[in-house]
Automatic annotation (TrEMBL):
Residues 39-308 form the Mannitol dehydrogenase N-terminal domain. GO terms for molecular function: mannitol-1-phosphate 5-dehydrogenase activity. Residues 326-507 form the Mannitol dehydrogenase C-terminal domain. Pfam families: Mannitol_dh, Mannitol_dh_C. This is Fructuronate reductase. The keyword Acetylation does not apply. Signal peptide: none annotated. The keyword Signal does not apply. It catalyses: D-mannitol 1-phosphate + NAD(+) = beta-D-fructose 6-phosphate + NADH + H(+). Keywords: Oxidoreductase.
Amino acid sequence: MKITESYIVNKDKFKDVNIQMPLFDDVLMKQRTKEQPKWLHFGGGNLYRCFHAKVAQDLLNQNLLETGIVVVENFGEALIKEVYQKNNNRSLTVTMKVDGSFEKELIASTSDAYFVNKNEEAVATVSNYFKQKSLQLVTLTITEKGYGVKDSAGQLLKTVESDINVGPKYDELTNTMSQLAYFLLKRYEAGKLPLALVSTDNFSHNGDRLKEALKTVVMGWVSLGHVSKDFATYLFESNNVSFPYSMIDRITPGPSEKIAVALEAQGIENMVLIPTSFGASLANFVNTEETCYLAIEDHFPNGRPAFEKVNNVYLADRETINKVDLMKVTTCLNPLHTSLAITGCLFGYESIYETVQDKDLLALIEYIGYKEGLPVVQDPKIIDPKRFIDEAIYKRFMNPNIPDTPQRIATDTSQKLAVRFGETIASYVNSSNLEVKELTFIPFVIAAWCRYLMGIDDAGNSFEPSPDPLYEELFSCVQHLRLGSDNDVHKALAPILSNRELFGMDLYLIGLGAKIEKIMEQLVSKPFAVRETLQIMIREEKF
């Protein structure tokens, strides 16, 4: 059977392979969405397919929502053509449990999907959606780099500079923020209609970052006379447009070949992985974990779906959501993930599950989570921080069926450090009873990342670091370091550790730069020095 078949007419086919089906008519849902769209989403990747689309599906199943989500994509043309359009915008979610079993659900809540680069018809259609009074929210999962408008030196990216100069001419715009600003201009022109712009990407204060990135483009247009100042006022100073904070959490790795084979063996067709020109594989299914959280600031100027009726979705005020987000992104999950990713790559591991079977790496994240992170966590009350770490380390990371890799998580690490470690470091700096110089394992991970940038693993073998927009710049700093040689570590690390864009501060000025350099000297002293150094630190810091 195929996931494109009618689950209303062929219900037994879906039951025979244990696929949970939607409880609504997706044909009717699509028609209603065209007439009165409520929800647009930018970035139709795996996280969207297994989380946002699932939230909408749960509401549709309860008759609490009549319309679906319209997906807008400006990067993955193959994703739209091969995955969305060929499957009637449906997807199969495979939830992998610790005991080895997995559940399957047909997700059919995406009403349409458009690729908006070099596609005038798609741009016109999406523009029309933005003009509709019924539109309540636009959510985004475009990764941290999707919000980038400046380089590490604080200068405008060339693409953004060009976009500002040409003004709101969509076919000449290349940056995601510029393209979004174009669509928002259409909503402004339709009558300054209200809207919530909800970043659901994995970093702190994501609503503010989205707002500031858009402001960079829009104020650039204003200064050159491309748009009126009133447009900027509408977006940033009125009550018409909101930029809520959010926290999202669901480990969603790339599609697993093992899962694909299992699905095909069950008689579900077209589940084989689809190769792409950019390296990653696509699939008509998404494999993900059981645990998930979505917390959103309840600020929607044009109303919102009944999110409070969905399991694992939390609504609260900005302060509470900020605490939830900081808990997860800066202490209780993301720093642990990044720590495993960096060291896992250096130790040659190819799955997160393998990394936590390594007693040294398990101890590393226990120290970072419980000893260095928890003391500065602000308890958000709606989610318990200690339980969150317990669940992350001993349930989620320990799930052998989650095919997540250190290499995937290490992608774009330069864009994540300020949030995943810089916030905790700043909390120590600002604390009246904690000393930043007492931090041990966060400095170790930062040193290990510098060691990782060399592209040489702990055994002395070369490996290919994961993609990172700043990799060439960073590699140029460490490329002259050699294992076992008389290295000038300070010269290599000074441009990195003093970079405020990377860490949110100059690590030398707060007293950590020299400590990280000292650790780095050990890490480059010989092959296998990363593990040896970590083991020594664990013995010395036993708690």
